[in-house]
Structure formats: structure tokens, C-alpha cells
Amino acid sequence: MIAPTLVNEMILLNPKKYIVSKTNKQGFIEYGNDYFVEVSGYTEAELIGQPHSIIRHPDMPKLIFKMMWERVLKGESIFAVVKNLAKDGRYYWVITEFETQFDSVTNEIVSITAFRKAATEDILAEIGLLYKKLHDIELISGVEGSEKYFKGFLEEKGVTYDEYIDKIIGNRGVFKLFFKAMKKMFS
User: Are 29 and 23 in contact (CB under 8 A)?
Assistant: First the structure.
């Protein structure tokens, strides 16, 4: 597929709706709920079988995806704030949590489900500045450079990645309850 022309316009997500997608362990889309299809602007047929990177916004630091995949492939939970790209070139921001499903016999990864809710303006105000710095560093020094910067950033704040995300998401308990309910529905 041809990459969309970027449009500097944010899609305002409905805070009462959620986005769900499921991929195989290589990241190819196997399922997307109706809201995922609607917000992305692609038809279901256009999404199924495509790499999930079809909605990756070029402003996103590659480091964030590297961290997500490292943890998800181990079956570990991770929250992330992500800027996604719609087919029409607009963008939307989400808070995402992942669930990795394993085959009960082989213990091999069967699929990875991503659950998403709209990110709020206060979250975007903080994460947007950090992501711009990480992205700019990656343009010159690659993912390795942004990873070193991010490690120093977290060390200076005296927090882990998870503690930092907890802080900027704020009332993570509400998000945890939401994501727990979503996991029950899709398990």
C-alpha cells in the first residue's frame, strides 16, 4: 500500500469507545474491531493481513516500538502512548496495553492483542515533547542513541519506564480496570 500524505490534523477519539486489534507474532493484523476500522480509515479487507505498521505514524520514535515488542514477545505487559496514522493522513493518540496469547501445549505465541483508549490532552502535552526529542535523536544517532538518551532521562527522574508512564497517565487504576475488562471480553 502507498503511504498516506501526512495531514497535520488530529482525529478526536470518542473517550467512551475502545480500539482493539489482534496480530500474529510477526505483527500482521488478523482482527480489528469496528472502531479500529472506523478510526484508521481503512476497510477491514485493507487491514487484514497487513503489518500493523500500516498505522505507524512517522513521528513516533522507533525506540518505543522496540521496547513494546521486546516486552510483548516475552508475554510481559506494557502500557504505551502511541501516535497512529490514519489512511487519510490524519493522526490519533492512544494509550495502549497488550496481551500476548500463548499456545497451551507448545507455549509458542499465538497472537498479540492491543487494547487502546483515547489519550488525554495532559498526557499528550508531556509525552509529545519527549517523543519529539527521541525522534530527533534517532534521525542523527539511530535507535541506539535515543535509547541512551531515554535511559538517562529516566535515571534523572529516578523512575523506571513503567513508573514514568504511570505518572503521566495519572489515574492508571481507571485504565487498568478498563483494560482488564477488555481482556476478559476478548479472551
Answer: yes
* 148 within a domain of the structure (yes/no): no
Residue 7 lies in a domain: no
32 three-state secondary structure: strand
Domain assignment present for residue 108? The answer is: yes
Q: What is the pLDDT of residue 164?
A: 95
Residue 162, domain member (yes or no):
no
- Write the burial class of residue 177 (CB in 10 Å: 0-12 exposed, 13-18 middle, 19+ buried): exposed
By CB atoms closer than 10 A (0-12, 13-18, 19+), residue 145 is middle
Q: What is the pLDDT of residue 68?
A: 95
Integer Cα distance of 95 and 117 in angstroms: 5
Instruction: Give 70-127 pLDDT, tens digit per residue.
Output: 999 999 989 999 999 999 999 999 999 999 999 999 999 999 999 999 999 999 999 9
pTM: 0.90
